[in-house]
From TrEMBL:
InterPro entries: ComF/GntX_DNA_util-trans, PRTase-like, PRTase_dom. Belongs to the ComF/GntX family. This is ComF family protein. It comes from Candidatus Thermokryptus mobilis. CDD domains: PRTases_typeI. Gene3D superfamilies: 3.40.50.2020. SUPFAM superfamilies: PRTase-like. Transmembrane segments: none annotated.
């Protein structure tokens, strides 16, 4: 715990001392917690609608997700992968907020999304959250919320099993890995009934995590579940 705090302190100090430059254009960054400037960020290629629909059809067919949206492709050795990595593992929290704002701007005219009752970040297990110090999906959800004005409820979904990291697992293993990993916090059981929720994650790969969250919400009486992620694999 103390070592973790010390590491964070050192990191903030490094950010303070070293001037950061945009990894793409080399321009000085006002926010040292970013790795690319806003202008370069706005130029990163977006997933087109046709692509999104095809991918979600593959991942969510027959399930409880009524609608889904992602901004970017998640591919190896791209700036998007790097941004997400820095956000998750290197304490670059402002990346989460900014990616969330981009995501929010992309859906600000989508009726289903903007009439939802709440944004629900995919929760981390409390042990993982303690190690990292924050939940990246929550940062993204806060960015989305800033644009579309829908509240974020961070503690409605709870991760009850500290699942292993999914990076090296195949589809079947991922499904098993997240099975029964989530629960709804008791105090929200009445609130959920008949409501529409947007589940927010950083990356949708197989969709297993979001599907599992949706199952739990549905079992507790939610009306509709939408999915939102910064990137899609
Ligand atoms: Zn730049």
């Amino acid at each position: 715990m103390i070592a973790q705090g010390f590491k964070l302190l050192i990191r903030s100090f490094m950010d303070f001392v070293f001037i950061s430059e945009c990894e793409i254009c080399g321009k000085y960054l006002e926010d040292s917690k970013m790795i690319v400037c806003k202008e370069c960020l706005s130029k990163i290629e977006r997933v087109d609608r046709f692509d999104i629909e095809r991918k979600f059809e593959e991942k969510f067919a027959g399930g409880f997700i009524s609608k889904a949206f992602s901004c970017f492709h998640f591919e190896e050795n791209t700036i998007v992968q790097k941004l997400i990595h820095e956000m998750k593992y290197n304490n670059k929290r402002s990346i989460g907020k900014i990616l969330g704002e981009i995501l929010g701007s992309s859906i600000r005219d989508e009726h289903d999304f903007i009439t939802a009752d709440a944004l629900l970040p995919v929760p981390l297990h409390k042990i993982r959250k303690r190690e990292r110090g924050y939940n990246q999906s929550e940062l993204i959800a806060l960015g989305v919320s800033k644009v579309i004005g829908i509240k974020v409820i961070s503690d409605l979904l709870v991760r009850v099993r500290n699942t292993q990291t999914q990076t090296k697992l195949n589809l079947h293993e991922r499904r098993e890995n997240v099975k029964d990993a989530f629960k709804v916090k008791n105090k929200y059981k009445d609130f959920i009934v008949g409501k529409k929720f947007i589940v927010v994650d950083d990356v949708i790969t197989t969709g297993s995590t979001i599907i599992e969250c949706a199952n739990v919400l549905k079992q507790n009486g939610a009306d509709k579940i939408y999915a939102l992620s910064v990137a899609i694999a």
